[in-house]
Amino acid sequence: MSRSSPFNAGRWAALVAVMGALLLSGCATPTVSARVTSFQQWPAGVEGQTYQFVPADPSQANNLEYQSYQDMVRAGIGATGLVEAQAGAKARFDVSFRYGTTQTQIMVRRPYDPYFNGGYGYGGFYGPRPWGGYYGYWGPEWVDVPMVVQRNTLTLQIHDGQRGGAEVYRSSAFILSERDDFVRTMPYLVRAIFDNFPGNNGAEREIQFPVR
């Protein structure tokens, strides 16, 4: 079961750091965190109405990767109440989506490591005074360090043909990962897009899914 909470930028950074520490220590169930932003003017009483996929750009036509992700979206779209139209039949709703990954940098909090933070003892240093005796300084147990991560993104749009093709749903989700593993991330992005569909207009949320 997913868990969601209001968007908070500071909490997001802290969560990345804390979850990383917990996973390394083996003390927590692994989770995937997605940040979702949704806008909607979803019409009432459309359960059972039909939809069709429309490529967002020409590069998606006859693209095997796109078709694979299309299957994932098809499996998750049940929350809308829509039914996919038969081939060649006219559908009320057009569904399109874009996906991709970019490299970005975030700051994460990690335990202080003397081998990478000045070569002193854990948390600080202890050494002789030039004029005799000793002095010491106990530094922070945690430090903020830059980390390069992959930003995996999915944006999905639904247009209503009975409203002149007006956009009635738009949702974007992204997940940060240390590795370039978009294929493994995509199912969680789809789940995030349709979580609590259609949701509040203009809502920003953070959702956590247990890793399967």
Topology:
Layout: E1 3-6, H1 9-25, E2 31-40, E3 50-53, H2 64-76, E4 83-84, E5 93-111, E6 124-128, E7 134-138, E8 142-160, E9 166-177, H3 182-194, E10 203-210
Parallel strand pairs: 3-4, 3-5
Antiparallel strand pairs: 1-10, 2-9, 2-10, 5-8, 6-7, 8-9
Rg calc: 23 Å
Number of helical elements: 3
The end-to-end span amounts to: 11 Å
Largest sheet: 8 strands, mixed
The shape, in one word, is elongated
Q: Architecture in CATH? A: 2-Layer Sandwich
The helix/strand class is alpha+beta
The overall average pLDDT, rounded, is 80
- The CATH topology is given as Double Stranded RNA Binding Domain
Explain what the structure shows.
This protein is of the alpha+beta class and 212 residues long. It has a single domain (3-115, 139-210), classed as Double Stranded RNA Binding Domain (2-Layer Sandwich), CATH 3.30.160.670. 20% of the residues lie in helices and 42% in strands. The protein contains three helices and ten strands; from the N terminus they run E-H-E-E-H-E-E-E-E-E-E-H-E. It has an eight-stranded mixed β-sheet. It has a two-stranded antiparallel ribbon with strand order 6-7. Helix 2 (64-76) packs parallel to helix 3. The radius of gyration is 23 Å and the shape is elongated.
